[in-house]
Protein 1
Amino acid sequence: MIVTIDGPAGAGKSSIARDAAERLGFEFLDTGALYRAMTLAAIRAQVDFQNDTEIIDFSESVQIQWDGDRVLLGGEDVSEQIRTPPVTDAIRFLADLPQIRERLSQIQREIAVGRDMVTEGRDQGTEVFTDAQCKIFLTASPEERAKRRHQQLSAMGRPLPLEEILKAQNQRDEEDRIRPMGALRPAEDATVIDSDGMTSEEVLEQVLRTVREIQKGDPTH
Ligand code: C5P
């Protein structure tokens, strides 16, 4: 069974998807990590981000693997390096290109073959796993998402002004929404969960309830 969880940056998808997978005894796939790894590889190779052909040609030589929790680039674990601002800022140059999306979508489908899996991203229910039995769109208001990120960064000893976080987040939301292929939107058959005012445990419980109702074959989910 495939469970897709899509939604905007900062909606808490990653931790909810990881926890849901664990509780269900499923595997977990963070598709943003694959986009990030491809971007890191391109930065390291000093690919010209203004040149689509160069990006696409380069991407064909990149070896990305997912080991269930970590992302590997040509065998090297790059799970930490992919979370840096230069990577986050450059992802759009790759994520906007249909050829790159097709390649990464193919990798995602190959990873999921024959598995029970919770996959997390932007286009999982709409493009990559259109036949998934359970599709969830996890969202929250921009203010709430920025507030959570602010608290997270402060707890890590790296506080940033809330307005700055909100501004960067709005820009990413816009980039993710207007993308011609793989744009951020709920699938028509997705269950939308708006997590404003909910604790992460409450969100997790709602996700698990949604999956279990579908597992029971309940058509009223
Ligand atoms: O989920 P995360 O924030 O790590 O994703 C980073 C970026 O990768 C997103 O902002 C989006 O541009 C891109 N992405 C995508 N499709 C996915 C997952 C991520 O375009 N399935």
Protein 2
Amino acid sequence: MSKLALGTVCSVRVYQKAEPSVFTAVFKRLSEIEDIFSPHIYSSNLNSINENSGVSTVRVPNELIFVLKTALYYAEISDGAFNPALGPLIQLWDIGGDNPRIPSPVEIENALSLCSWRDVEINEDDGTVFLRKDGMALDLGAIVKGYAADETARILKEAGVKKALIDFGGNILALGAKQEAGFLRKEILWRIGVQDPVKERGDYVAAISVKDATLVTSGVYERFFEKNGVRYHHILSFKTGMPVENSLASVTIIQAADAEYASMQADALSTTIFALGCEQGPSFLQKFPGTEAVFILKTGEIMETDGLKGRLSK
Ligand code: ADP
Ligand code: MG
């Protein structure tokens, strides 16, 4: 079953008999998550934090604090390559929105002065968030689809589902195996395609065989606009105020799904590694044992971490 949610096509496929009410529960939950985290829904909790920047603290649901804390952790360890407080800059470019444009250097400078993640204040005891400067804005778009995939997996598992494929716009969580090992029945793994960053959606450059895993990709092709033959994509640099420019076309993070909030971690990590680029990315990844990655360079070269050897077909 597929629906538009979280700014993308959200598809949940269950590979066994399941009550229709499972899908109702999942999509209800996705719309709840959207009502909390969407920067495009005026009444969202996230917007209420942004509206009150520089003015007052805002009480928010615990889950927003949980996801925001994770995002701030990635900001800290990547020295801002991942930045959940990039809202003013993201709004300025409006990539993927109705009026994308190349801002002037002055506009970029002004926006960047309001993008410090160190000015985000969380008070866990009170359950509140405060942005210290007027005009600051959070954007959790780089992590929330992963969180939503984890929540979906939790609901499915609680309903007894063991085999399912969750795909939220390239943020994938494969539950169980396509077919479980059983008496004389060979286990069949999921084969997940890695999108070719320069081709049509659905054109894959490689496939990875997995079970119980999450695979999350960040790339130059996901959202972008073109002007005078130049492509401006949607992952922005806190240092230059421009789309991140390096030798990577995309990065896919692969992680076992049984780790806590695995897809959220993989989502944060894919954006972080993409922003860090091919020079710093691979060594940064070593801080996360058990996490594998596929890097696709702009030259078309494909590189994968050692743990994927034998599981990746090109
Ligand atoms: P996608 O949403 O296409 O799956 P990502 O998970 O990489 O891709 O998230 C990209 C989104 O994150 C952007 O659309 C924007 O909302 C936000 N964003 C852009 N640059 C950054 C950054 N450097 N750090 C954190 N979030 C970012
Ligand atoms: Mg991400």
